[in-house]
Amino acid sequence: MLAGMTREPEQQTGGGEPDGYQRLWTPHRMAYIQGEGKPTGPGAGDGCPFCAIPGQGDEEGLVVARGELVYAVLNLYPYNSGHLLTVPYRHVADYTDLTVPETAELAEFTRRAMRAIRAAAAPQGFNIGLNQGAVAGAGIAAHLHQHVVPRWGGDANFMPVVGRTKVLPQLLADSRAAIAAAWPA
Ligand SMILES: [Zn+2]
């Protein structure tokens, strides 16, 4: 198990069945919107964090693995521990903008991310997806990034995770090291 993987007791916040969609995609969007890494414009030179991360060290940038055309990085504002993003190095916004080789490596990195997270943290399931456009929930819509979110039973309430922002940096460093060590060659 990853350090910091212990979860809060399941909390009931309302009646009915949980709607995983809103809970899943809202928190990191809000964190990015309010965060310091918000780009000033849509271009690659407008402070895009996904263009800057590959130039940082693995620990500093929370990079888990580097490929030829794409890389994997921990989400700075995770919904769950081990929440990864697979990202093309190239500053493109839309899935249809990817070349065939980029598409293939993005898919392969998603598979490797699942294997690594399974080895490191034994999740019971995953949410994997692309938010295309700000209207669809993309916090940084100008640079495509695919979410790989491990899921465990009882993790539906994100507030305890988001609320622990002061201890998250250490947890992220531990998570990065564990998943990077488990990354398939
Ligand atoms: Zn970019």
UniProtKB/TrEMBL annotation:
Residues 1-22 are annotated as: Disordered. Residues 49-158 form the HIT domain. The keyword Nucleotide-binding applies. Pfam families: HIT. Gene3D superfamilies: HIT-like. A motif (Histidine triad motif) lies at residues 143-147. CDD domains: FHIT. Keywords: Nucleotide-binding. InterPro entries: AP-4-A_phosphorylase, FHIT, HIT-like, HIT-like_sf. This is HIT domain-containing protein. It comes from Streptomyces bohaiensis. The lineage of its organism: Bacteria, Bacillati, Actinomycetota, Actinomycetes, Kitasatosporales.
